[in-house]
């Protein structure tokens, strides 16, 4: 119904973020072009990457008004927490709320499992809560990593319409926004769909892939389920990642990772249709090819920290 099935499958798997590696890549992000400036040129994450990595739909209505003024879109102009109680049937305790965000633990304890024999309205409430948790943790997580924003109330109010939105495009826009914030302001912690960013790095840059993760299924980000980057000191690992990035050449980047036979064998049928459309240039233009621009000469990259 919400077309978030593949994202829900990823939510059931264990992923760990390689913070030093991701930090080193984010230092290469340039908000002026929305690209990573590499020694061999520029590259970026595209809608195609989001489709194959997370299995999200791109077609549908655009998602707007959910970042800063979501309360304006609440039906009837009612207060946000009043609408929260109407849609989910309960209010979190005051000590579990911070402005418009709720503690993840409260969400999980309250809506962790729908009771047997629940009536239709109860099932819908649990479905709304699950979608809010899914979006708030997998795609639009904040820097705290332990709170869930209630900005999705206007969307889950009509469950039947959830599948009509382009979740792929808003996820990519949110990731761009988060990386631009880190690059432009005095921000040291990165938020957003970092699982997407890390999987993109592993798929596009084979030299950074962990060993022993050769088998994969759909969506492709599931390939790295169970990956544990270790707990060694971050400082030296960030320095090592920077040095390795400095030595990258064009041959170290996979320009078309989703066209190999082993990938096509696991591609979901819907995305196989999209791939054919993409080849003909009907949907995303040339997003199959990540742009290679002029060589980057600047050597000054802002140091960032994640977590």
TrEMBL record:
Entry's Pfam families? PMD
Top-level taxon of the source organism: Eukaryota
Single biological process term from Gene Ontology: meristem maintenance
What residues does the Aminotransferase-like plant mobile domain cover?
Answer: 10-263
Q: Which InterPro entries match?
A: AminoTfrase-like_pln_mobile (IPR019557), MAIN-like (IPR044824)
The name this protein carries in UniProt is: Aminotransferase-like plant mobile domain-containing protein
Which lineage do the record's taxonomy fields give for this organism? Eukaryota, Viridiplantae, Streptophyta, Embryophyta, Tracheophyta
């Amino acid at each position: 119904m919400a077309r978030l099935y593949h994202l829900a499958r990823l939510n059931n798997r264990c992923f760990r973020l390689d913070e030093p590696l991701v930090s080193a890549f984010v230092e290469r992000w340039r908000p002026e072009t929305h690209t990573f400036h590499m020694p061999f040129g520029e590259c970026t994450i595209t809608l195609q990457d989001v489709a194959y990595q997370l299995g999200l739909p791109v077609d549908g209505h655009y998602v707007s008004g959910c970042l800063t003024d979501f309360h304006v879109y609440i039906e009837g102009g009612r207060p946000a927490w009043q609408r929260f109680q109407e849609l989910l049937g309960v209010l979190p305790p005051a000590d579990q709320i911070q402005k418009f965000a709720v503690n993840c633990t409260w969400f999980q304890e309250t809506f962790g499992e729908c009771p047997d024999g629940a009536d239709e309205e109860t099932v819908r409430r649990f479905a709304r809560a699950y979608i809010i948790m899914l979006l708030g943790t997998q795609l639009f997580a904040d820097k705290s990593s332990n709170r869930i924003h209630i900005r999705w109330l206007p969307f889950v109010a009509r469950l039947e319409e959830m599948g009509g939105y382009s979740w792929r495009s808003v996820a990519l826009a949110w990731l761009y926004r988060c990386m631009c914030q880190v690059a432009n302001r005095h921000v040291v912690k990165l938020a957003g769909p970092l699982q997407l960013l890390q999987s993109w790095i592993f798929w596009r840059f084979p030299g950074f892939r962990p060993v022993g993760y050769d088998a994969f299924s759909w969506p492709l980000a599931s390939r790295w389920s169970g990956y544990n980057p270790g707990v060694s000191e971050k400082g030296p690992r960030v320095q090592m990642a920077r040095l390795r990035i400095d030595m990258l050449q064009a041959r170290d980047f996979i320009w078309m990772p989703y066209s190999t036979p082993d990938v096509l064998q696991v591609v979901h049928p819907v995305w196989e249709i999209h791939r054919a459309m993409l080849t003909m240039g009907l949907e995303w233009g040339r997003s199959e090819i990540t742009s290679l621009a002029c060589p980057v000469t600047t050597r000054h990259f802002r140091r960032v920290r994640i977590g």
